[in-house]
Write a structure and sequence with these properties.
The complex is a heterodimer of chains A (about 140) and B (about 90). Chain A has about 140 residues and is of the alpha/beta class. Chain A has helices spanning about 1-5, 20-35, 40-50, 110-120, 120-130, 135-140, and strands spanning about 10-15, 55-60, 60-65, 75-90, 90-100. The chains are: A alpha/beta (about 140), B alpha/beta (about 90).
């Protein structure tokens, strides 16, 4: 399920980025290219952090940028950016940005709960934090054989 | 059975993850509860037994709900969420 969204096409790795805003835009780029989201969705995700605070940092080093379902979103999508150097997101160092694009309140839930289960597991989380996309791919395709 | 709300700005992403953390922490504590995730505006006027959300959104919610509001900093941190549940139970006694 998860590897339907997180694939070589939608996962990126970088050493560092200038700012959390740039990190969100960069992380979302594959979805923009695929037509999953519109440019406006990237702005909405950034505005949301300004308006609602940094609660998208769901655990240390991990952020889930997202905005309103179906607004600037054409289909369900996820994309991942892993960083070597953490970037500051309003007082929180972040190394993993998982962009979530939802169309309604349900279509993305299975994939979201799947990735949450993985990230709540300390061993798997360490693999995500390492930033190695091959290892991450192995991890998220494991359950689908 | 308790009714809890997990709240974020849009009710589709972070609040869903928070709902999972609450359910896990509640299970460990044998708390019988039903958790619903929702957005900020739907949470206003709710009659849930407790509302879990971020500090910022919690400040906005206070005053528009009678439910006790528990701020959570890390939605995916089962231990932090568990502590909030313990606080909720302590208040109940």
């Amino acid at each position: 399920m998860l590897n339907k969204y997180l694939s070589k096409e939608t996962m990126q790795h970088a050493k560092s980025v200038e700012s959390w805003e740039k990190a969100i835009a960069y992380a979302a780029e594959p979805l923009l290219e695929k037509g999953v989201i519109e440019e406006s969705y990237i702005k909405s995700m950034i505005d949301s952090v300004e308006e609602n605070g940094p609660y998208i940092v769901l655990k240390d080093y991990f952020a889930l940028p997202h905005a309103k379902a179906g607004v600037g979103v054409n289909e369900v999508g996820m994309s991942l950016l892993t960083l070597d150097d953490p970037v500051d997101l309003k007082g929180n160092p972040v190394k993993l940005f998982l962009v979530l694009a939802a169309v309604d309140s349900s279509a993305h839930l299975e994939a979201l709960s799947e990735i949450s289960e993985i990230l709540m597991d300390d061993e798997s989380y360490a693999i995500f934090l390492s930033g190695d996309l091959n290892d991450i791919t192995k991890l998220i395709t494991k359950g689908d054989d | 059975m308790y009714k809890f709300l997990a709240v974020c700005g849009f009710g589709v992403g972070s609040s869903m993850v928070l709902k999972m953390s609450i359910e896990k922490a509640a299970k460990e504590r044998n708390i019988d509860c039903e958790v619903e995730n929702t957005d900020l505006s739907s949470a206003k006027g709710s009659n849930a037994d407790a509302i879990f959300t971020s500090q910022e959104l919690g400040d906005e919610l206070k005053g528009s709900t009678k439910s006790p509001v528990f701020p959570i900093q890390r939605y995916m941190d089962k231990e932090e969420v568990g502590k909030a549940l313990d606080d909720f139970l302590a208040d109940k006694k």
